[in-house]
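User: Is it possible to get a 3D structure for a protein together with its bound compound? The compound here is zinc ion. I've pasted both below.
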Amino acid sequence: MKYCPQCAHRLITVRLEGREYLACEWEKCNYVFYDNPLPVVAALVEHEGQILLARNQAWPAKMFGLITGFVEKKETPEEAVSREVKEELGMDADIVSLIGIYPFFERNELIIAYHVRTCGNPVLGEELAEIKLVPPEKLKPWAFGTGFAVQDWLNRRTVQE
Ligand SMILES: [Zn+2]
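Assistant: Yes, that's possible. Here is the predicted structure of the complex:
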């Protein structure tokens, strides 16, 4: 962003309470581009006792992850995660629990992660290239983004046993 969406003057870098933001250079306009993180829902999908991981069309061959998507306007996070599972896997999701909320600074997102259960036969939506089922004991969390939710889910699972 280069220009103010309110008055079309230039945006300049300012410091407010120790943080840097882009803000309008015109003294009569008080626009600040806060660039707040976007909420994203993630589903750790338990499908018939295994964990379903998905590879997005745009991802490299061996990269799999959780089902994710943006929360739409006037949609609760629970509705969003159910909708994403339906769109991407063609199955209804039962929400088991909220795993947690995780910042993903690199993408300026805030991930709201749920454990969900599905049954039936997955039918892949157009965003997905392929899926795989992994037994929970073989699930290996990755050290970014939704991987921290996978780690927390596994830790709690171990404690319960
Ligand atoms: Zn302005």
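Residues 1-35 form one domain. The first strand starts at residue 11 and ends at 16.
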